[in-house]
Amino acid sequence: MYGVSLSSVKRWCKQYDGTWQSLLPKSHRPHSHPxxxxxxxxxxxxxxxxxxxxxxxxxxxxxxxKRKGYTRSxxxxxxxxxxxxxxxxxxxxxxxxxxxxxxNC
Length: 105
Description:
By secondary structure, the protein is mostly helical. About 50% of the residues lie in helices and about 0% in strands.
């Protein structure tokens, strides 16, 4: 009758708790991931980063972690370090193009 399926109406009725905010669309993104680094692994990454990054770079951090029993991949370690905010990248500013006026001869 209203152009909405019966299953949608039933779902809305089940979800309704007396306020209109309960019917607003919600995110379907997961709140956590089962394979995320543990607190212990994050602590290891932070300690190795402080100790080795200045002198040896990412390779030195990864080899130090491997010696300590880290089992994740190289790219996973870099991703976790960036997520923790250990690396501060400088944003490069784009050069603005100046529109030059050429003289008419």
